[in-house]
Amino acid sequence: MVSLRFPAATFAHLPTPPPPHRAAIAAAIAAAAAAAAAAGFALTAKSAGRPLPRPSHSAPLWASLSLADSGAPGNVEPRTGAAFPAETAGGRRLLGVGLRKTTILGLKSIDVYAFGVYADDSDLKQLRDKYQKLPISDLKENDELINDALERDIRMTVRLQIVYGRLSIGSVRSAFEKSVGSRLQKFGGSDTKELLQSFVSLFKDEYKLPKGSVIELSRESNHVLKISIEGEDVGSIQNKLLCQSILDLYIGDDPFDKNAKNNIQGSLASILKA
Ligand code: DAO
Ligand code: DAO
Predict the structure, then answer these.
(1) CB-count burial class (<10 Å; 0-12, 13-18, 19+) for 139
(2) How do residues 180-205 score in pLDDT, each as one tens digit?
(3) What are the E-state strand segments in 17-138?
């Protein structure tokens, strides 16, 4: 049985006439709230009156996260130059960065987004009792360690920076149905179609994801998946399977970027041995 709930979706009143992209997000969030209500989820749209953060792409691409801001050189995804902060706002530590590509029309390869995977150090310590005794070389290859990271109540964030300049919401929906859908089936079996459909129906056409946009997919305590676009919460859902399925795309056994997965697992191993 899958439980689906949207405890909070946030949109803020804008203090000044907003850039078109942000206005579209606010409108889309309102529409998503209505859709969720119609579909029977508990979703509360709270008009907080707090100013929205500055859109990062009003500056040139990547300028808001310069190398100087983001610490060690390992924080730049080398093929795209996308820079990732060493920590998220919530203090989660960067474990590794990578690239999500796809092919269009069966032949042309495109870079869709760069990503960084983060985890909460204190939550990772749950895994120490089980793994600290193993040599680091084992931990770097240990599939059970990854399964535990995917399944346990460990706060993690995947931060996406859009690289592809012509991303439509329709293509995000169908990519999500395919990638996340296959993982939901892998972990959850048959009754996951409805969960997936309800979830992707919240990705409204009004959202815009221009090059440079930052999306965060966060697993909060108790398996709550929280999504934000440009620092604004767009909704959350408590669902263990969905959290696990999304993280599996990046660190599971058939990841988008194998090299990134190896680096992430290497960082996990070092943290557990420290
Ligand atoms: O323009 O036809 C096209 C190709 C678009 C490919 C899109 C892949 C989308 C991947 C998900 C992005 C999630 C932010
Ligand atoms: O790369 O296949 C993939 C999965 C990417 C997950 C992207 C989730 C995007 C959620 C925000 C959409 C808002 C329109």
Answers:
(1) buried
(2) 999 999 998 777 888 898 888 888 88
(3) 45-47, 76-77, 82-83, 93-104, 108-119
The predicted-structure confidence for 40-52, as pLDDT tens digits, reads as follows 333 223 223 333 3
Q: What is the dihedral of CA 206, 207, 209, 215, to 10 degrees?
A: -170
185/191 Cα distance (integer angstroms): 8
Give the model's pLDDT for residue 27. 52
Q: For ligand 1, is residue 160 a contact (CB within 6 Å)?
A: yes
Domains and CATH numbers, the chain: 9-273 (3.50.70.10)
CA–CA distance from 145 to each of 142, 253, 261 (Å)?
A: 5, 12, 13
Residue 16 CB contacts under 8 Å (≥ 6 apart), including other chains? none
Distance (Å) from CA 175 to ligand 1 centroid: 6
Q: Which listed ligand is nearest to 162 at the C-alpha?
A: 1
Label residues 200-223 b or e (16+ Cβ within 10 Å = b). bebbbebbbbeebbbbbbbbbeeb
Whole-angstrom distance, CA of residue 114 vs CA of residue 128 = 30
pTM of the model: 0.80
Q: Which of 99, 104, 108, 112 to mutate to test the pocket of ligand 1 (most atoms within 8 A of CB)?
A: 112
Output the CA angle 45-46-51, nearest 5 degrees.
125
Cβ of 112 less than 6 Å from ligand 1: yes
CA of 199, nearest ligand number: 2
Q: pLDDT band at 56, cuts 50/70/90?
A: very low
